[in-house]
Amino acid sequence: MGDQKKILIVEDEPDVMIYLNAIYEDNGYTTVQATDGIEGFNMAKSEKPDLISLDIAMPNQTGVRTYREYKQDPDLKDIPVIIITAVGDDFRRYLAKLKGFQKPEGFMNKPIDENRLLKMVADILAD
Q: Which CATH class is domain 6-120?
């Protein structure tokens, strides 16, 4: 099973991390985890995941800043990102207005809809 896709989960809430990890692994994905944006950036550099599942509100470095760093790094810019946040649609509209903010490949509000998330992941990784 060397063709398993690897997902980096960047999430500071332990319960959400466990939940996302279970969803992804139960559906055939390999996961690696980071609990803040700085660790998530370093993990992306070392692990080269196929997809990044990124929370926005985190300690040490926000998901917005981390996302920008992913998209500005030549080695990471092509890795698709799904932003998962409890902040909601107002935040999504705010992101769309930010100058130079590249739209993420996916966006999911918390609480997480497992079926919708898995379809989003499968669609993104199928490209």
A: alpha beta
